[in-house]
Amino acid sequence: MLYLTNDLGLLPFFLPLGIIGFYRYLWFFIKVLAWIVYEPVQPKANPTYIPSQDVTIIVPTIDAGEEFKIAARSWLACDPKEIVIITEESMRGPLEDLANEVDPTKIRVLTVSKANKRLQMVAGVNATTTEILVFADDDAIWKPTMLTYILACFEDLKMGGVGTCQTVHAVNPNGHQTVWEVLAGFRLTIRNIEVAASTHIDGGVCCLSGRTAAYRTLILKDPAFQFGFQNDLWLGKYPLNSGDDKFLTRWMVTHGWNTFVQVCPEAELFSTFKDNWRFIKQVLRWTRNTWRSDFRSLFTERKIWSRHPFVAFTMVDKIFNPISLLSGPILVIIFALGQAENAGPTNAPLPIWNVILSYFGWLLLTRGLKLLPHFYRRPQDVIHLPAWLLFNYYFAIMKVYALFTLHEVGWGTRAGVGTTLAADIEKEGNAEQARLDNLSQQEHDEKVSDHVQLDMSYTPDRSLDVNPNRN
């Protein structure tokens, strides 16, 4: 197709495509360069924080299975002080059985009144007695060095939240990954590059992924945080149950806390993803969360512009990404159709198949270059490159669809979770308050205790003092 550029009449086709391509690859080159020079925080010889004394792992879940035992054993290998599982009442028995199989001395199970991730997370925060807490998914598998490298970042007293890099753990016991899991792996490879780049350039990140992220406990015990976290409404009436990690990340930015992502083998976690078409539902939920959170960061809170301008520009770039991505095939189709219409006895056009195959081959080459870090680790995944290319265009269309369906706040893969309306919340709150008004003080205390079922006799052996010179 290169010889076509000799025809100045084709400039209306090639010039827009060239400008868009130049911008996209320049932007990617900047991120790759920052990723290459990025350096993780190294642990000190005499660290301020020690996992066995200073870390509680909080795991909100409603349907943990056998993979939980694998994950829990990996957490225990990092030697935390305690693991707190927060679930709904109906799952207490099965989860206690799982916990007892792993280590009943270090794992305790608490419950809340209904399945609601944010409610579960707050219950876990309030049960924490250590200075650092780590939220983890029930299928997040750690390396034994995970907590050591996470805690290294908290030597900075302004550090509020720390994230990790990620890779895919196959659902199949023999390690075989379906095409859906490979697509998830491709996404994680690009994400690891992007978060390392933004962390290096201006210390910010779009999101500290909830699969594993650590925070200072005192930040999350702030009543203002807990109220906002549990009353997070979209458009004033749609309660957000998912997107908790986005909220936490924005809270760090707007309240002056630093963030960091440890992108290194020692802080890499393995996590399962849907190994079938339900992966698409996961991506749709994540995309809606990204739209909502980025709009708030850029246009409502606006702190991101001054604290992390590179991250702010990244968010703006994501807004227009579907347009730039879809413009390529649209221009190619227009060109191919135009060639056919202008065909005559003296000017034979290029066959349409020639144009389309040439463009498709170029896309495979350029997308493959972006995934070289992934192919270095898993060269067998190169056969899924065409599927990745198709997924990218499907994802661009999905982003547009997600933009116009931001009022959909359900989980998508978990029916009935996070779909309560604001009016229902207010109604439940009023009814609960009326019942409490009729209780004696003693009954009221018992009601509150039963509601979350926390072990109030559990007392801390260390105050929440972030002073590294503590006794």
TrEMBL record:
Which InterPro entries does its entry note?
Answer: Glycosyltrans_GT2/GT47, Nucleotide-diphossugar_trans
Which segments does the entry list as coiled coil?
none
Q: Does the keyword Glycoprotein apply?
A: yes
Its keywords, alphabetically, are: Glycoprotein, Glycosyltransferase, Membrane, Transferase, Transmembrane, Transmembrane helix
Q: Kindly list the places in or outside the cell where this protein is found, as annotated in its UniProt entry.
A: Membrane
Protein name as catalogued: Glycosyltransferase family 2 protein
Q: Which organism is it from?
A: Mucor saturninus
The principal localisation class reads membrane
Please name the GO terms that the record assigns under molecular function.
Answer: glycosyltransferase activity
Which parts pass through the membrane?
13-38, 319-338, 350-370, 382-404
Give Gene Ontology CC terms: membrane
